[in-house]
Amino acid sequence: MNRRQFHQLLLAGVAVELPSQPQFSARITDYPFQLGIASGNPTSSSVILWTRLMTDTKTFKPLEQPNIKVHWEVYADSHLQQLVAQGDSDALADYAHSVRVRVHHLRANTYYWYRFTCATFHSSLGRTKTLPEANSQVSLRFAVANCQNFQHGYFTAYQQIALENLDFVLFLGDYIYEYGPSKSKGMRYHLGPEAKDLAGYRQRHAQYKADKMLQQAHAQHPWFFIWDDHEVQNDYTHVKSTVAEDLSIEFYARRKSAYQAYYEHLPFYFDKPDFANFQLFQNLLYGQSMEFWLLDTRQYKDPFACYELAMKNYRVLSGCEELLWPRSMLGIQQEQWLDQSFTKSTRPWKFIAQTTLVHPGSNDPTFPQKKFVDGWSGYPKARQRLIDTIARNTSGQTIVLGGDIHASAITLLRKSSAHIADKPIATEVVTTSISSKGLHKREAEYYLKNPDFVYFNSEDRGYSVFEVTEDTLVLKFVTTPSPVNLESKFSVNALFELKIGGDRPHKIQVLN
Ligand SMILES: [Fe+2]
């Protein structure tokens, strides 16, 4: 209803609901875009733009104001000459004054530039890109990142990611760490105690988002996301806390707060957000040659096998019969969705993005059953179901993407890891952490004894880049020695190539 129609109705004596009072952004007197801007979850015709208004960069206290109107603009060029779309959006007080806009009617496979305006302040200029049409023949260049413990190092990798020519960034979990400030000497410290409630998670996200290097990577590329445990609590499963005294009902409320803060700080858009049930897993088509499945390995995960024993033994189990129970990492509904969708796919490159190492590490089924319960090793039946799903689709090439272990790794996944003469059914690529500390050297030595481990390096921090054409995938690990300083220099530490129909990635260059 436009203004004229509104007045005509009023004159005709028709009761009409008054439009909500415009909010005055004049109350904002300090620069409100301290947390940067971001875009994400693009389709071939839309993208989500994000910001959160924040002026306090010391303690990151939310604004004490009602909803605030923010203007947004999308341009076809970086000089802001060709305006494509604009509008006003409310920074809702209920969502910590975060702003999210899904911009529609965009052209496929196209760069756009965007900015927000609030009161007299402009945000910095962001760049984003839509996905190509699902039937188009295109190449793809994307980066994978995960595990950014603020206390373990600087986000210098993101400065480098911002410079990369990418179609998108794929983030595989541990966007924040929930812990309180480290007691040992670190490079920088978390504000506030362990995040446990909405205020705590909001403050933690805001502290991470205030990092200028992370802001650069968000402003330059659209991102896709899955989460792992630290967005809520180390090693949690479903609604089960890893603290014995926590009741599920209390932990459920904690998880809800964590999911809400996650939503408030990332470019997601739900019409009616329900933080008790956050639909994260999704399927993406990228042109006619590539397809992605983004999995949620936390929200529906069954509790650990032999729970009490596992907790006592630092999550490592031996001789636990419950490991053989048909427990799930993904939840049955997500497993079925994946199986139905994956087995139908005819695209040559299939990427399953999940959080952690899928290879069991040992190929010996009689290996003294020492299992790390939080990973797929703690869910061997579920892992076999995932492997069986992958094996049922014999077309093209499957790449399983993972993170979590703070190491770069390439492994060969087989129908049965005991039969190493069999042709691998997928290649697994684990990307090292942005900043979180790496595994002990001994673990690296152990893995490298396994012929299925094509590459393993837990010494370096960084990210990976995938360049995918119709028939070739080139994979680069771009890393720096640990820990990451502000002056750290990143370089391509390992370079592999994989062809459609090829058995294994072919080493082009490995520097260490
Ligand atoms: Fe991590």
Question: What would you note in describing this structure?
Answer:
There is one protein chain. The protein is α+β, with helices and mostly antiparallel strands. It folds into two domains: 19-129, Sandwich (Immunoglobulin-like); 140-510, Alkaline phosphatase D (PhoD) (Purple Acid Phosphatase, chain A, domain 2). Helix content is 19%, strand content 26%. The strands form four sheets. Strands 5-2-1-11-10-9-21-22-23-24 form a ten-stranded mixed beta sheet. A seven-stranded mixed beta sheet has the order 12-13-15-17-19-18-20. Strands 3, 4, 6, 7 and 8 form a five-stranded antiparallel beta sheet that branches. The longest helix is centred in the middle third of the chain and has 18 residues, at 248-265. It is globular. The chain starts with a helix and ends with a strand. Residues 1-22 have low confidence and may be disordered. The chain binds fe (ii) ion (FE2). Fe (ii) ion is lined by residues 147, 174, 230, 404, 436.
